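Checklist before submission:
- one chain only
- standard amino acids only
- sequence pasted in full

Submission:
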Amino acid sequence: VCSNDDKKQTISVLKTLARLGDYRRLSKVCANWRAQLDTLEQKFPNFLSVVNYLRETCALSEVAFMQNVLDLDNILLESGPGAGKSYFCEAVANFLDSGRICHRMEVAQSSSAISGSDAFWSNAKNGSIFDAIALGLAPGSNGFPYANPVFILDEVDKIDTDGRYNPESALLSLMEKSTAKQYTDLCYPWLKIDASKVTWISTCNDSDGISAPLLSRMRKFVIDQPSQSQ
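Returned file contents:
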């Protein structure tokens, strides 16, 4: 049994899905990616290891089957406060230009912001994965909704894993490509979404505060504090 509000919400979602169609584009690397990454290195010299990783991946994408589509690992940036992690994440999202969503994990009390809440609840709401991919609510600068948006997770080492609704639970399946291919939002369990192309960039001050299962799903880069000249 659905309330009238639930029916209206579902009808609205179905209309949006009908308008956008079944498939989403994959954002491709821009033609001048080398110059853009050179600029990124100049702005963030203490993030050279990450920039070089982006260079390698961009170069591989040019000769891969899915030409110019990046297949990035889930990235984790570890450093103390003041290294510029959040600013760098925004710059990488601008470079990829596939849309972005940012979650502050230190204040997250459940996974509902990402994976939605069960339709059982009266205040059920779909999560940001569904919003970004299915509803196209985080488009790139050209207005297109993409299947590979950037999700920035700030301070993942401060996730409250002791609460009743562990925010980490949704991330474990979403950061595993095999399970992310069959992702379902809790609010719309009848609709499967391929979320395996999402780009995940996380930050932390100390990776020792991240659970082993979640840490194993990320490629960690330890970032030095910028020098005085930098």
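Reviewer check: DSSP finds nine helices and seven strands in the chain.
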